[in-house]
Amino acid sequence: MYDRLKALAEALNAQDIVTLFAQDEGRASAFSVRHDGMLLDYSKTRITDAVRAGLIDLAETRQVAARRDAMFAGQAINETEGRAVLHTALRNLEARPVLVEGRDVMPEVLETLARMERFAEDLRAGRIKGQGGAITDVVNIGIGGSHLGPDMATRALAPYHDGPRCHFVSNVDGADIHDVLSRLDPGRTLVIVASKTFTTIETMTNARTARDWMAGAVDAPAEQFVAVSSALDRTAEFGIAPERVFGFADWVGGRYSLWGPIGLPLMIAVGPADFRAFLSGGADMDAHFCKSPMSENMPVMLALTGVWHHQVCGYPTRAVLPYDQRLARLPAYLQQLEMESNGKRVTMAGDDLQGPCGPIVWGEPGTNGQHAFYQLIHQGTQVVPCEFMVAATGHEPELAHHHRLLVANCLAQSEALMVGRSLEQAREMIAAAGLTDDALERQARHRVFPGNRPSTTLIYDRLTPRRLGQIIALYEHRVFVEGVILGINSFDQWGVELGKVLAGELEPILTGEASAEEKDGSTRALVAFVRGCAEG
Ligand code: F6P
Question: Where do the catalytic residues lie (predicted)?
């Protein structure tokens, strides 16, 4: 499938990105996509006209446009689970009809959004109270898609917070919930239990712990609980009244669910108007994705750049490097989005995937990462395509000099990766510092940067709620396009099941209620160690 592109990659092996710029003055604009105040620059890669044409041809052959239209039309493209994939309906603020099995789902989507808004407003205005008075703190208990999105987005939009403080608990490690609850007043805290299935062991364990904590201090703990779930029978069983439950349909995948009730903490933090602005950003990116020709389509070109680097050039990982401290959780969010979606080895047709699945995604905000792992990115033996991301302006005018430094560092890194430093330049630099002969030669090779290392940069004016919505939807569609090209189902996640089953078996083994006999030697030894510690 990638033969033609691989041949092009081979032919470009000796090609410097710097030379591509020297040969084409217009390269920066020719190899970038602009949309609504955002610029995606992929010119600092070895993608040429021929490569881009080959990549677009691949996308056309794999019928990306037809699959995209099928998704937006509500067809059951999540074939292994027999479901439509319609998180886009949650941000369809214009209420264009979206049919699932012949029924328009928009009235229900908008009714739930309106209920969320009434609830958030009442909470923010102090009309919904705890036993001790107005709610000051909200604790969201959830994991995976019921945690990473709201946590990431709530941090990202900190400058817009004017509601109660939001806290996030996800890990079954008791330290997580302990450290959050121990700082809070139960009488003025609201707990949101967020779980699509309402069965996830981590979330249900944390929810029960929170309920006990609340019950120890207030008379009607259930009144200070809210559930966000698509399993309304289970939320009732847990004791949460139906009017305190915000439901969503099974056609919203967990890692795509931030746009609906799973986004409730974000709405509480920033208010319904800014939450709508966030949704409008997502909707704008949907329209761009549906209408723009491939070469001017930001999600498509971001996806094709990823395919070029991973499937064609063979670079095993991709670093996401937001130069924005408030996007500190974005790499973790994108890890789930990309690796849970495209980390598959079987195609839709049930065959073995030919070639690599989606890449390993990792990252940290800049500039922190520069003082940690960028060493390997610049001088290590593996090439790591980097995806930089930065806002031209920050939210703190009084700290504009900080932001200037932040942007300068971001631009400097992509420049350094591309340009590098030759042996000759290294020698000159060391000579200027006064070293000569052997001492100079011993140092010089260590100071060489190979350069020619690819990166993309997404730059935008400022991280507003709308901009964040555009960025998240951009990445969602990028993952979709990559999945279509691979021919896999990006919307199931069977790979998380086995560990869950085995953890269920191991818990009674750790307490001694069940025998470890059937387990392998390593697991038996680890169990024995744990039991030994427990017995002191
Ligand atoms: O274990 C993986 C997973 O199913 C994710 O796909 C999901 O986002 C997460 O667990 C949480 O699931 P739930 O919202 O049902 O608790």
Answer: 340, 371, 500
